[in-house]
Amino acid sequence: MKKKLLKLLSLSVIVACTIATLSGCGSQKQASGNDEKVVNVFTWANYVPDSVIKEFQNKTGIKVNYSNFSTNEEMLTKLQAAKGAEYDVVICSDYIIEVMGKQKNILMQPIDKSKIPNYKNVDPRFLNQLYDKGNKYSIPYTLGSQIIVYNSEKVKIPIKGYKDLWNSTLKNSLVLVDDPRIVIGMTLKKLGYSMNETDSKKLAQAKEELKKLKPNVKVLNADTPHNSLINGDATVGFMYGSQASTAVKTNSKFKIVYPEEGMNAEEDNFIIPVKAPHKENAEKFINFMLDGKISNEATTINQYVNTNKAAKKFMSSSYLNDKAVFIPDSELNRAERFRDVGNAAKTYDLIWSEFKQQ
Question: What does pTM read for this prediction?
Answer without folding.
Answer: 0.79
